[in-house]
Amino acid sequence: MSHLLHGALICAFVFPFITAEQQRQRVGWWSASMLRRMGIALHSEGVPRGTATLLVANHISWLDILAINAVYPSRFVSKSDVRRWPLIGWLVACGGTLFIERERKRDALRVVHQVAAALKEGQTIAVFPEGTTSEGHGLLPFHANLLQAAVSTGTPIQAVALRFSDSRDAVSRAAAYVGETHLVRSVWSVVTASQMCAQLKWLPPVPSEGVDRRELSETLRNQLLLALNVKDWRSADSRGKYGSDV
Predict the structure, then answer these.
(1) 216 contacts 151 by C-beta, under 8 angstroms
(2) How is the chain split into domains, by residue range?
(3) What is the second-level CATH architecture of the domain 2-232?
(4) Are the C-beta atoms of residues 176 and 135 closer than 8 Å to each other?
């Protein structure tokens, strides 16, 4: 809790007076520190492409954002519900998150324009094309809508394969934020897990200029399936909870 409050103080009294790059550095430091405080090791393989990139990742938990930010701080697209979470929602917004109302189909177009504008400015934007979380044993179908922002701006897309493990499971059940799990219960499961490790694998960037977004979606999804060696869940039967895309 103290680290959350520390983050809030940074957002309120430091962010208004520092540059965007300095803000990114603070976000990276804070995220890495939060993982350590929860007893989560971090292992990253591969190289983030850097600025002006659209990141896509499989989605397991709220931990995904901390893990990615700890390696390469990015702006995320998240469902609007997260903005209403006490304190955490404000911190996420302070970090530059773009919020989308998944219930409103037309809202996707608004966010596509926002993402495209950010990419043109050289920013890195991260999305979760599955649109919701899973337990980590498979990959749900991708929603290609937000990939249009990369296509429109000719921005390369980089996939990031995420996995959490612990002393009990190679694919940690404690990390998954799925079903009707309450956030407090999820946090408790994470901090009481033994030897949890966040594993990230940064895959080769894929060019987007002149490519159909659905074709891109399949290419990126196949990259992640191969990197994670998980099941191909083409049905939407196994839906999660913390959706961040459409």
Answers:
(1) yes
(2) 2-232
(3) 3-Layer(aba) Sandwich (3.40)
(4) yes
Per-residue confidence of the chain (246 residues) as pLDDT tens digits?
A: 688 778 888 888 888 899 999 999 999 999 999 999 999 999 999 999 988 999 999 999 999 999 999 999 999 998 877 777 777 778 888 888 898 887 677 788 899 999 999 999 999 999 999 988 989 999 999 999 999 999 999 999 999 999 999 999 999 999 999 888 888 899 999 999 999 999 999 999 999 999 999 999 999 999 999 999 988 887 544 444 444 333
Closest CA to 96 of 75, 110, 123: 75
| Strand 157-165 to 98-100 pairing | unpaired
DSSP state of 122: T
Whole-angstrom distance, CA of residue 116 vs CA of residue 241: 26
Tokens of 101: 């109302």
